[in-house]
Amino acid sequence: MDHGEFEGVIGLEVHAQLLTDTKIFCGCSTKFGGEPNSHTCPTCMGLPGALPVLNKKVVDFAVKLGLALHCDINRRSIFARKNYYYPDLPKGYQISQYEEPICTDGYLDIYLDGNKKRIRVKRVHMEEDAGKLVHEGTIESSSYSLVDYNRSSVPLLEIVSEPDIETPGEAVLYLKMLRDVLLYLEICDGNMEEGSFRCDANVSVRKKGVSDLGTRTELKNLNSFRFIERSLAYEMERQIGVIVGGGEVVQETRLFNAEEGATYSMRGKEEAHDYRYFPEPDLLPLTVDDQWVDRIRQSLPELPMEKMDRFMTEHGLPKYDVEILASDKELADYFEETIGLFPEPKTVSNWIMTELLRELKSGNVSPKRSPLSPANLAELLVLIKDGTISIKIGKEIFPELFRSSVSPKSLVEKKGLLQISDESAIVATIDRVIDRFPKEVADFRGGKEKLLGFFVGQVMKETKGKANPKLLNELLARRLKG
Ligand code: ADP
Ligand code: MG
Ligand code: ZN
């Protein structure tokens, strides 16, 4: 049997930490990185008698994401207790949603090899995060752990996909698009290192043509796109190997070891948790009415996929460009502001994708904080278009324009970079060059037309790259031939 006979089936569970100022059931701050246990109160410490009060903003954000993912927004949903014991969970249960979540049955489209593919979203529900354990010392040296409850009860949305994803690469495309949607909605900062966007991946394999799903394993807490891709690829190969070898895949939770590039069993089904869910008695069923949903619907921004489609139809840009431009809302805004002033979308897109992105990346600045404003980029492009400077000079001064935020016009004047478009000045230089290279001139006239480039180079050298290239080519050809 060869491995090509198999296909992968992947379903993803994403946890997105919400950008609310306060926690989901109390007024404590959600700020990352405070003094341990300084953002706590009786409610998020789980002290007896403390009662949860639902943060309305969390519901706003859940509805927002639900609408963006084309879900049904359930007018009534229920909070439930998910019971298990762990030191970072002071109540002995996590408040989550189970049988009746707020959003169900949506989808997210991604671009796959130039075509749209729809990944169905099973549910989006609200829940609280757990605290954090800090392990000190080693097992040998009488180790101990400290617990920090600052993260306890920070609001999360869990987004569960249907098993519609077929390859590790596709999983990453889905996750990137979902992250972009969250960023566009401004409800999550998407920071994977700090854990504000994290993913558990369920994966199984089956023979092509078979419709039943295979037994799946779950990969936990993958905190980078690269790890997700690598661990899924490893796990699919491992499962295929088990089946080809005559064995059976065991349903279990596995952890990815990045150094070894392999996954390891963490717990099997036998030890799987029975969470004994039941409705949270301290919270009423949540009802949202049509007005609430409509109000949120009206506040929705244009989403990444809509923006990509519009950039293609309205501005005639290729898909390659729009995927880059729309992957970051600030960059898309920067682009649109610039074409408002210099209405040549493809030219603007080229400059943004090459020169601007290079500078933004190397300086680690966001488009919104770019020292080179859209107005200044447009001004630069006008200078090039009207022949004041050459493209070459434009690219040369770009890094300085970016760093100094001076106007392109004044920099060009200050540095004396004005393109020479004065015929007589160019002709004078051409004559000098021709005098200096009689042999090359003779060769050219004898048929070695390729030498034109050599003469262009010589004139450019003399004018320090400032001769108008179009004019120079014309004048030079005329002069050499005649
Ligand atoms: P549970 O309730 O056990 O967590 P769910 O039905 O909620 O299971 O599924 C969890 C995730 O696993 C979903 O993203 C789903 O798409 C995915 N999934 C379910 N079955 C399979 C399978 N056989 N192969 C791959 N993914 C699966
Ligand atoms: Mg689940
Ligand atoms: Zn609190």
From TrEMBL:
Keywords from the named record: ATP-binding, Ligase, Nucleotide-binding, Protein biosynthesis
EC number from the UniProt entry: 6.3.5.-
Location of the Asn/Gln amidotransferase domain: 333-480
Entry's Gene Ontology molecular function annotations: ATP binding; glutaminyl-tRNA synthase (glutamine-hydrolyzing) activity
Keyword Ligase: yes
InterPro entries in the cross-refs: Asn/Gln-tRNA_amidoTrfase_suB/E, Asn/Gln-tRNA_Trfase_suB/E_cat, Asn/Gln_amidotransferase, Asn/Gln_tRNA_amidoTrase-B-like, GatB, GatB_C_1, GatB_Yqey_C_2, Gln-tRNA_amidoTrfase_suB_CS
Catalytic activity of the protein: L-glutamyl-tRNA(Gln) + L-glutamine + ATP + H2O = L-glutaminyl-tRNA(Gln) + L-glutamate + ADP + phosphate + H(+); L-aspartyl-tRNA(Asn) + L-glutamine + ATP + H2O = L-asparaginyl-tRNA(Asn) + L-glutamate + ADP + phosphate + 2 H(+)
A biological process term (GO) from this entry: glutaminyl-tRNAGln biosynthesis via transamidation
Source superkingdom: Bacteria
Self-association and partners: Heterotrimer of A, B and C subunits.
Alphabetical list of PANTHER family matching this protein: GLUTAMYL-TRNA GLN AMIDOTRANSFERASE SUBUNIT B MITOCHONDRIAL AND PROKARYOTIC PET112-RELATED, GLUTAMYL-TRNA(GLN) AMIDOTRANSFERASE SUBUNIT B, MITOCHONDRIAL
Role description: Allows the formation of correctly charged Asn-tRNA(Asn) or Gln-tRNA(Gln) through the transamidation of misacylated Asp-tRNA(Asn) or Glu-tRNA(Gln) in organisms which lack either or both of asparaginyl-tRNA or glutaminyl-tRNA synthetases. The reaction takes place in the presence of glutamine and ATP through an activated phospho-Asp-tRNA(Asn) or phospho-Glu-tRNA(Gln).
NCBIfam families noted in UniProt: gatB, PRK05477.1-2, PRK05477.1-4
Family membership: Belongs to the GatB/GatE family. GatB subfamily.
Protein's name in the database: Aspartyl/glutamyl-tRNA(Asn/Gln) amidotransferase subunit B
Taxonomic source organism: Syntrophorhabdus aromaticivorans
